[in-house]
Design a protein that fits this description.
The structure holds two protein chains of two kinds.
Chain A lengths: L9 H10 L3 E6 L4 E4 L2 H6 L3 H5 L12 H12 L4 E9 L5 E11 L4 E8 L1 H23 L3 E6 L4 E4 L1 H7 L10 H9 L21 E7 L5 E11 L2 E11 L1 H37 L4 H33 L7
Antiparallel strand pairs in A: 1-2, 1-5, 3-4, 4-5, 6-7, 6-10, 8-9, 9-10
Chain B lengths: L1 E6 L3 H12 L3 E6 L2 H11 L3 E5 L7 H10 L8 E5 L4 H10 L3 E4 L4 H12 L1
Parallel strand pairs in B: 1-2, 1-3, 3-4, 4-5
Helix pairs in contact in B: 1-5, 2-3
Classes of the chains: A alpha+beta, B alpha/beta.
């Protein structure tokens, strides 16, 4: 049995025209709307009479008029409009983004059009674009190397500092975590040591200040933060900081303190030791003279040392000379 | 008579330690660097070592380690003299199993006390 589709009568179509959430209309080649469904009133806030009384171009955002006129001219030649966007003014002065599909009726000089209000989608897109531009600028403005990996192990974001710190040519950057992990393993001093890109499951929620030693002698510090959506881990962001210079400064400072400490404590030991012995015990005159001359020599040496250290400090700070 | 080996590269400090200990019944041997201290310790088998940490060549720590590794000298008690007073330095000496650790400038009488305790 063959089922033939029965075409709807115009009267049957009328409820659809009224109920549609999209903005439906028939417009003339003369620049005026001829018929509008109620969605127009709901969307723009004007009455249908108000919209019908003025050329439709009056409602189009001034910045969109040129492209709208061009689109209308295309329609007049018989071509359809499939996906055209422009902004229409509302009664309150704001604009709504409309997405159009239009087909022309050349003989009757009419346009049959359906428009969808895509304002909220446009706003989300705009917010998203802002977020992306903020993210991109943030990534590139930081002094740290940053890489982001999603839940499937794909590398989704990275900055140039990351490539620079790890000495990876941009063209050689692997696409996934495993490839990148192998690449980093090549560069760490011991192959078994961590590089910050271990299995997502194997790591704590956040990681901070782990030290990574590289083959070339540099030292990095890594931080990581899981990417969460509704509490679910969907990836990870890892950042790396070159702390080679800081470590070297710390080492030199420690060495300096150690040397200063040794150099100062050695003569002090003689001062304290011999004076204590003379206070506690009786010594012959010749012994006492020997000890006193050691005490004297060592106190002179101590003074010279202190002056030398002050000179170093002065050179470092560039401050004024002062006498001890 | 108990034999004490004293190793320090500073002659004044050797004089000080020597003077501190000479009133008592000790035979005192002196070494002026780590290498000499190691040789003398192996040859003379002293009853006690008074070792300076920072010496040119072999440091006191290295000498102590080498003596610990040799069963013949492993049991000789060591008193370490040092100008390094930081926490991790103290840990290092402790890990070595030294008998005592004196931070410069130390009191000679306190040193004498430690020496007596070690030899008792």
């Amino acid at each position: 049995m063959k089922i033939a589709e029965i075409p709807p009568t115009p009267a049957e179509l009328d409820p659809f025209f009224t109920l549609s959430l999209d903005l439906l209309c028939i417009a003339g080649f003369d620049g005026y709307f001829k018929r509008l469904n109620p969605a127009w009133e709901k969307t723009l806030g004007f009455t249908r009479e108000e919209i019908l009384s003025r050329p439709w171009l009056d409602f189009v955002h001034p910045d969109d008029r040129d492209k709208t006129i061009a689109e209308a001219q295309k329609l007049a030649t018989g071509l359809d409009t499939v996906s055209f966007e422009n902004r229409y003014r509302c009664r309150d002065g704001t604009y709504r983004w409309l997405l159009w599909t239009v087909t022309p009726g050349i003989e009757k000089k009419l346009l049959y059009a359906a428009a969808r209000d895509i304002t909220s989608r446009k706003m989300i897109e705009e917010a998203l674009e802002k977020s992306v531009s903020l993210l991109t600028a943030t990534l590139e403005s930081t002094a740290d190397g940053i890489v982001a990996i999603d839940g499937d192990g794909r590398i989704t974001h990275w900055n140039h500092k990351f490539l620079e710190i790890w000495r990876i040519p941009e063209s050689n950057l692997p696409k996934d975590r495993l490839g990148l992990a192998a690449c980093l393993t090549d560069r760490v001093r011991k192959p078994e040591s961590r590089h910050g890109l271990e299995e997502l499951e194997a790591r704590p929620d956040a990681d901070s200040g782990k030290v990574i030693e590289l083959k070339d002698g540099r030292v990095l510090e890594s931080y990581s933060q899981p990417r969460l959506i509704g509490g679910r881990r969907v990836g990870i962001v890892v950042s790396y900081r070159d702390i080679t210079e800081r470590m070297e400064t710390e080492r030199l400072k420690e060495e300096f303190v150690s040397i200063v400490s040794h150099e100062l404590r050695t003569p002090l030991t003689s001062l304290r030791g011999f004076s204590e012995l003379m206070l506690e015990r009786e010594y012959r005159r010749s012994k006492r003279r020997e000890f006193l001359s050691i005490i004297h020599d060592e106190s002179v040496r101590l003074t010279e040392l202190i002056n030398d250290f002050l000179d170093i400090r002065r050179m470092e700070s560039g401050r004024q000379v002062y006498q001890l | 008579m108990k034999k004490i080996l004293l190793a320090d590269d500073e002659s004044n400090l050797r004089t000080l330690v020597h003077t501190t200990l000479e009133d008592s019944e000790y035979e005192i041997l002196e070494a002026t660097n780590g290498t000499e201290a190691l040789e003398m310790a192996k040859k003379e088998r002293p009853d006690l070592l008074v070792l300076d940490w920072m010496m040119p060549g072999l440091s006191g720590i290295e000498v102590a380690k080498l003596l610990r590794d040799d069963p013949d000298t492993a049991d000789i008690p060591i008193i370490m003299l040092t100008a390094r007073g930081q926490e991790k330095d103290r840990e290092k000496v402790k890990a070595l199993g030294a008998y005592a650790y004196l931070l410069k400038p130390f009191s000679p009488l306190q040193l004498l006390e430690k020496v007596r305790d070690a030899l008792r």
